[in-house]
Structures are given as C-alpha cells and as structure tokens.
Amino acid sequence: MEHEQNIGIGLTHDETSSIDHTGLDFASVRADFPILQQQVNGHPLVYLDNAATAQKPNCVIDAIQRHYECDNANIHRGVHALSVRSTERYEQARLKLQQFLGAERVEELIFVRSATEAINLVAQTYARNCLSTGDEVLITELEHHSNIVPWQLVCEQTGAKLRIAPINDAGEVIYDEFVNILSAKTKIASFSHVSNALGTINPVREMTTAAHEAGAVVMIDGAQAAPHIPIDVQEIGCDFYAITGHKMFGPTGIGVLYGRYDLLNALPPYQTGGDMILSVSFDKTVYNEVPYKFEAGTPNISGAIGLGMAADYLMKLGMDRVLAYENELLSYATSTLSNIPNIRIIGTAAHKAAVVSFIVEGVHAHDVGTILDNAGIAVRTGHHCAQPVMAHFGIEATARASMAAYNTMKEIDSLAEAIREVVEVFG
Amino acid sequence: MSDLGDLYQNMILDHNKSPRNRRAINDPDHCAEGYNALCGDRVTVYIDVDGDVIKDVSFEGSGCAISTASASLMTETLKGKTLDEAKEIFQSFHHLITEGPVETNDASGLGKLVVFSGVCRYPARVKCATLVWHTVNAALDNNTKKISTE
Ligand SMILES: Cc1ncc(COP(=O)(O)O)c(C=O)c1O
Fold first, then answer.
1. Which is the most buried residue in A21, A90, A308, A371, by most CB within 10 A?
2. Is the pLDDT of residue A90 over 80?
3. Can you tell me the mean pLDDT for A152-170?
4. What residues of A are in contact with residue B14 (Cβ under 8 Å)?
C-alpha cells in the first residue's frame, strides 16, 4: 500500500491578511496544531513553553499513526513487505534530517533518544578515549545541565579538567575569554547554539573556528536552535551537533547526533547489542558501519519517522521565514513586557531567539506561573536546568516565555495583561 | 475556571509581604534544612523546646508566596504547642493541602492554616505549602540532614 505523505503545511501563496510580511502564514501554521485549539481555565490556551517542549502538527501526528496503522515492522531485518516499508521510511527520515542539518553524508546522522543522549554518547565514546590528565574540556556558563554534567563525569573518569567560558550581564558568552581559555590542552569545546534559559544565540561559527585553531574538537548543543534558526553543520564547521525531536515539533524519545564521518568511523561503539553488528561469534564480533554502529537494539522507529516529518514541515515553512517571524514576535514581546513596571528581563543579548526570561520584582516565579496558568497561559518557571546561569544573575528562578512559529502578537498581549494582573495581586 | 483569590487569600499575601519569625535562633534545640529541587526553594527551621512544649520556632529562607506564608503561619501556629500536637497539626494540614477541607468542625487545630485550603486545587503548588512542614518534622526527629519534598 502506498500513501501520499500529506504534509498539511500552513503555507499558502494567497494574499490573505494572515500572511505576515515575513512571508509566514502564521494563522494557517496555527491551524496545523490541533492542541492549540483548546481552552485552559476558561481561556484560549496560550502556549509559551516551547523551549521545554513544542507542540506537534497534524502531519507529524498522522505520520506516527500511519506507521502503526499501515507499516509497522522491525527494520533492517526480515524480507517481508512491512519490514521493507518500515526500513524505507526510517531511512527516509534520516535523509530529511541530513537535509535539515546540511550534513555532507547521510551516514553522519545517528538516531538517539534525545539531545541528552547525543551529548553523553560523544562524552563516553570520543571524549573518554581521547582525554587524559592535563587535558581540558571547555564549555560555557550558559549551558543546560545536559551539556555540563556529561563533561563533568568524563573529566572525573579521565583526569581532564573542565573549563568554563564566562558570560556577561547581557547573557552573552564573552568571546575573548572563550578564546583565551583555548589552548593546546583543550581537546574538546562544547557549547550551545541557542541558550534555553536566556535565548542567546552564540556565534557558533567563530567559536568553532577558534576552537579548531587550538586543535580542539567541537560539539554543539543545538536543542534550542533546531526549531528556530537555519542550521548548516558544514558551514558552521563543527564536528558534532545534537538536536532533540520534541523541541522541533517532533515526538519525544528521539533525537539526532550529527558527527563528522571520519570521526564517527574511528569511534568505539556506545552501546552494544543487536543491529550494531555485522557478525557475532564467541571469538570475534564485527561492528556494523556508521551510523548503525551507534544504533544498538530496535530504535524508536515511529519516533524517527515522526521527526523526519517534523524536519520536513520546518523546511517547508522555511527556516529563514520562521526566524524572521519569530524575530518580530521577540521584539514585540520585549517592548511590550518592558513597558510593565516591576518587570526585569533576564538575558538581553544582541542576538536572541524568541525567548523572554523575566522576573517580576518582589514576586517569586512560581507565583507568576500560577497566575499566568490561571489565565490559560503556559510558561516555564524555575531554573530551566541552567542553575549556573541563574547563579550568574544572582537569582533562583525566572518565568520564561518561549515562542514558536505558531504564536501570535495577540498572545503576547494576553501575556502582558496577565503579568499586569500579577503585579496587581502582589501590589 | 479557578478563582485566584482562593489561592492568594489576603492573609497569605500579608504573611508573604511581612513574614513573622523569619530569623535564626542561636544554638537551637532542633534545626533542619529543607530543599525543594523543583524550584530551588530552601528553608531552615529552628525550634527551641521546654520539655515537650515548643517555646520558640522560626525560619529562614525565601521562596514563593505560598511557601513563605506557609512558613510564617507555621511559626505562629506551633509556638506553645506540644510536640505531639505539632505532629497532629502537620497531619491535618497535609490532609487539607492534598485532599481539601474536611467536614468536621475545627477539631484539627488548624486555626489560621485553613487559608491554605485553596492549594489543593493547584497540585503543582502543594509542595510549596508542605516543604516547611516536612522540615519541621525532620527537625523534631532531630534529623539534621537535608530533606526534600521528593
Ligand atoms: C539547550 C538544551 N540542551 C539540551 C536539552 C536537553 O534536551 P532533551 O531533554 O530532549 O535531551 C535541552 C532541553 O531542555 C536544552 O534546552
């Protein structure tokens, strides 16, 4: 059975009023996401917690359902029709991700569970084998815990030292300090493309070039970049790049590690078992080729297919258009929120993704979150798994409104109105 | 739709703004520190006893309005109570926060603590209200290691 892959894309060329001058038909994008059409606490849902996880368009939900209704079988084994079909769809998804990230070869894309697993994979295969006492790993003060703790662990295991490039009070990595810490001792530099807590977009190409000049291998945590800005791993020049499906309109439990082919080829396996071997005997086991060497066991097949569809959806929207539209959301949100007395925006980098982390003076972020929830507005409150960032600003927590391509200016108005209510209740 | 006023009652807002007994006690008989990993809130509880009566009780730390008011009202409620009474009040309070008000007339000794009855409709906030009480429990058990609401 063949079926047309119907990507209900929110993009038309009609001259309708919902087409923003960035070219994104956001009203129609919105209509692609069924979960957004609901009321919460008596108000239309305003979902502004996209940095935690994003919602899923119909085409992704349908792709997963179709897999289980029509194609489901295990992949890379068996000659029967369903197995062949599932394998094809799984590998087509890998091709979509290759296109999405701009990788040179399709073998450079490894399906993993999440960005967290991707970083751990690199730490426990590449880093663990190359690091020894006296070596250094360089990260930044901006990182999510998942780009801190795996390096702490491997440093402990190998005797290497973890170095931290500091940020300034706008929430930007201080580039000169980053470069100053780099030396012949630096074996790995790992940093985020976009900060989840503050929205800062790092100059990843310059940072990669500087790290390479020092002889370090570069890993980039792109979990927050994938849904918001165009990514081209070859242009960036990085060696590893991690993304996670659920933040880019795909399902949970699936992510991708990009790795340069020659590096991946030389690495030992991460986990072992079925599918990652060519032959097994009790005398000698021969590992499979990349990427299969890193995909031990039955993978998240429907997740990969769903993620492939999500990447396709984003590419059809056009990442340039998404970025342009979200920039407008960000500047509108920034100016609207700045007008509210007692609000302090944390993270004012010159280059930012559509994230506004803020505190209402004298009010704990949890109370802000509860009052916003009461108005149907979902934001994240807390330390955002980035406690060093909070420590830098001398705060415990912020409320964070993080936007996606389906959010609207009107929703920003609702947010501002609810924040005014916070100020009123605690006045 | 839930009414915010149920949660943020005036007494809670007042105790949040001017917490009572937010201070350390030097060389306390009992002391414990509580930590809520979810929001990073920390609270330290100090208790002085005279026999089995709570002579003085105080707290330090800062958190959301619910946790600050809960700590403040805890100190007002427990001062002068016996240790057994304190444990009973904690049980009733915990029930109030997680299940809602019980129908009995206030035999539970909750007193002012009934202002927290709105919390049960905000499951995400239950831990904010109970952290300080778990910490009191730990202090009374002379459990000096850090406790959490997990
Ligand atoms: C910057 C950043 N890196 C990594 C992660 C981890 O993603 P996951 O939990 O999907 O592995 C997150 C998720 O919050 C993130 O924001």
1. A308
2. yes
3. 98
4. none
CB contact, 8 Å: B125 with chain A?
yes
Residue B145 pLDDT: 46
Show which of residues 360-389 on chain A sit within 8 Å of chain B, judged by CB atoms.
363-367, 369-371, 374, 381-383, 387
Question: Would strands A285-287 and A355-360 be described as parallel, antiparallel, or unpaired?
Answer: unpaired
Q: What is the pLDDT of residue A15?
A: 39
pTM for this prediction: 0.91
CATH number of B3-148, picked from 3.90.1010.10, 3.40.50.300, 3.40.50.10490, 3.30.160.390: 3.90.1010.10
Q: Give the nearest ligand 1 atom to A51 CA.
A: 16
* Number of residues that this document lists for chain B: 150
CA pair distance A395, B78, nearest whole angstrom: 31
Q: What is the DSSP string of A355-422?
A: EEEEEETTB-HHHHHHHHHHTTEE-EEE-TT-HHHHHHTT-S-EEEEE--TT--HHHHHHHHHHHHHH
Sorted by where each begins, the domain ranges of chain B are 3-148
Are A263 and A239 contacting, i.e. CB atoms less than 8 angstroms apart? yes
Is residue A146 in contact with ligand 1, taking CB distance under 6 Å? yes
How does the average pLDDT of chain B come out, rounded?
A: 87
Kindly list the structural domains of chain A, giving each domain's residue range(s) and its CATH number in brackets, ordered by start: 19-48+318-425 (3.90.1150.10), 62-315 (3.40.640.10)
Task: Tell me if A403 sits within 8 A of A194, measured CB to CB.
Answer: no
User: What amino acid is encoded at A341 in this protein?
Assistant: P
In this prediction, residue A24 carries a pLDDT of 80
